[in-house]
């Protein structure tokens, strides 16, 4: 971020959104960081036990998911989509079913 390096704790990350060849990282303190990395690269770097890919454009921190619906989930007041191809795995991973 403007040639500044930040160290982020996994638990501070709410979710990650793809933005072309960049990603937006949304944090608990309502701030956001933009970094040059693809969502696939980020998915490979984050621990699978904490983060789940729920859409082609979203990775979520499982611990921050408040509500799950058929095709969306809520983190804080933010509604995020769940892609059709991700629905079964998301339900299994987020609800333990």
**Largest β sheet strand count, sense and barrel closure:** 5 strands, antiparallel
- Following the backbone from N to C, one meets helices and strands in this order, namely EEEHEEEEEH
Order of strands in the sheet with most strands: 3-2-1-5-4
Task: Count every helix, treating DSSP H or I runs of 4 or more residues as helices.
Answer: 2
Q: What would your notes on this structure say?
A:
With 97 residues, the protein is α+β, with helices and mostly antiparallel strands. The chain is built from two helices and eight strands. It has helices at 39-45, 87-95, and strands at 13-19, 22-27, 32-35, 51-55, 58-61, 65-68, 72-75, 78-81. The strands form two sheets. Strands 3-2-1-5-4 form a five-stranded antiparallel β-sheet. The longest helix has 9 residues, at 87-95.
């Amino acid at each position: 971020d403007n040639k500044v390096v930040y160290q982020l704790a996994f638990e501070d990350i709410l979710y990650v959104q793809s933005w072309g060849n960049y990603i937006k990282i949304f944090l608990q303190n309502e701030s956001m960081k933009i970094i040059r990395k693809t969502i696939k690269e980020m998915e490979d770097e984050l621990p699978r036990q904490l983060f789940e890919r729920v859409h082609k454009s979203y990775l979520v921190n499982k611990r921050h998911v408040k509500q799950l619906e058929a095709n969306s989930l809520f983190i804080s007041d933010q509604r995020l989509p769940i892609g059709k191809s991700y629905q079964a795995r998301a339900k299994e991973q987020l609800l333990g079913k």
